[in-house]
Specification:
single chain; two-stranded antiparallel sheet; 427 residues; Ammonium transporter fold
């Protein structure tokens, strides 16, 4: 019977709980950004993912992500997706360790996990990532998509986009073997969600009825606080142990978020003549998204630089979106898509094996090959996520209309889709 490390296991259960809290936080964040008659419609899209994604995760999702690896040739499609050996958590019991290794060039290499932590804890932790990732996309098509179409989208997007990238990068797939690294989800979570959001915006089109939006800035602040709090579990927990890298990921998360928030609000103050609270909150989320892939691979000094650049680049990405007329209602592409993209690139620049021996040195430490691999991985993930999302939406539209009519938008999604209202005087 294995001897479990109670400290590591306890920490990972806490980290799992923190990541779980991020999905309600996202619901509050998005709920405050939309108008009063569409609050419940955007919030339920996050909460339903907590239920339905868990069902899929148990059925086959976890197995598709983490069962098999391309080194041994036991996964499917040449390292793109796992097999179904662990469907229904088959073969996993209370004594199964989370550590999975393989032999690469005669050396035993860890793919994921920790020998002192049960596999059931790893399953739960990764499930929370699967829950929040598709929920991020919903902010892009706020007030425009039918609930039935969203449920189909949620299912297909997990299977065709999210699961493959989890396996390719975190589950012993082809990109992991090639040397691509992503500490906590720059590609696996933010970039593919952001590119899916952009595809959704361009496919669904603009809202037919103008939404006043920003109906509750305090609700946005509450959501940001929960996201920021949960992000410590998101990033620090991705070390899957309690050590110096955990501490580094934790402080880097806070540094990047803080610097990005201040840079964003200063830019808004300068260019928009007002230090806007929503800008401060959005900047913090941009910093959190950008540091995510690099949190456990870079120094604290690098995290400060990444935070500053994240605040500036994501601010101007949102400005570009506005100039282009893309109706990305809640700036998912500008914050998460661009944030995840530049975070992976920054990792290729600032990565240091002195911080984490499981990573690689970036450009600033004399290595160019790792940087090139990170850039190529971003190009692959961006094209894949955008293309598959566009195709999925077209196919879903043959089954059930994706978009609402102008009349339905005028009434509001809360009432027309769910028969409920967030406020008795909803307008």
């Amino acid at each position: 019977m294995p001897t479990w490390n109670t400290g590591d296991t306890g920490f990972m259960l806490l980290a799992t709980s923190l990541v779980m809290l991020m999905t309600p936080g996202l619901a509050f964040f998005y709920g405050g950004l939309v108008g009063r008659k569409n609050v419940l419609a955007i919030m339920i899209q996050s909460f339903v993912s907590m239920g339905w994604t868990t069902v899929i995760w148990w059925l086959f999702g976890f197995s598709m992500c983490f069962s098999g690896n391309c080194v041994q040739g036991t996964d499917l499609l040449g390292g793109v997706i796992g097999n179904f050996d662990w469907a229904f958590f088959r073969g996993i019991d209370l004594n199964t360790s989370s550590l999975v290794t393989t032999n690469v060039n005669g050396a035993t290499v860890s793919i994921f996990g920790n020998a002192g932590i049960p596999m059931l804890v790893f399953i739960a932790y990764q499930m929370m990532f699967a829950i929040i990732t598709p929920a991020l996309i919903t902010g892009a098509f706020a007030n425009r998509v039918k609930f039935s179409a969203y449920l189909i989208f949620l299912t297909l997007w997990l299977v065709l986009v999210y699961f493959p990238f989890v396996h390719m990068i975190w589950g012993g797939g082809i990109l992991w073997l090639w040397g691509v690294r992503d500490f906590a989800g720059g590609i696996v979570v933010h970039n593919i969600a952001g590119m899916a959001a952009l595809a959704s915006v361009l496919y669904v089109g603009k809202r037919k009825v103008i939404d006043k939006g920003l109906h509750s800035i305090p609700l946005i602040a509450l959501g940001t606080g929960l996201l920021w709090f949960g992000w410590y579990g998101f990033n620090a927990g991705s070390e899957f142990a309690v050590d110096q890298i955990t501490a580094s990921a934790f402080i880097n998360t806070d540094l990047a978020a803080s610097f990005a928030a201040i840079v964003w609000v200063l830019l808004a103050w300068w260019l928009e003549k007002k230090p806007k609270f929503v800008g401060l909150l959005t900047g913090a989320v941009a910093g959190l998204a950008t540091i995510t892939p690099a949190a456990g691979f870079v120094t604290t000094k690098s995290a400060v630089v990444i935070g500053i650049l994240a605040g500036a680049i994501c601010y101007f990405a949102v400005a570009l979106k506005n100039k282009m007329g893309w109706d990305d209602a809640l700036d998912v592409w500008g914050v998460h898509g661009v944030g995840g993209m530049i975070g992976i690139i920054f990792l290729g620049i600032f990565g240091s094996v002195a911080v984490n021996a499981n990573g690689f040195n970036g450009l600033l430490h004399g290595e160019s090959s790792f940087f090139i691999k990170q850039v190529v991985a971003i190009l692959i993930s961006s094209v894949y996520a955008f293309g598959f999302t566009w195709i999925m939406l077209k196919l879903i539209n043959f089954v059930t209309p994706v978009s609402l009519t102008k009349e339905e938008e005028e009434i509001g999604l809360d009432e027309i889709l769910h028969g409920e209202t967030a406020y008795t005087d909803a307008m």
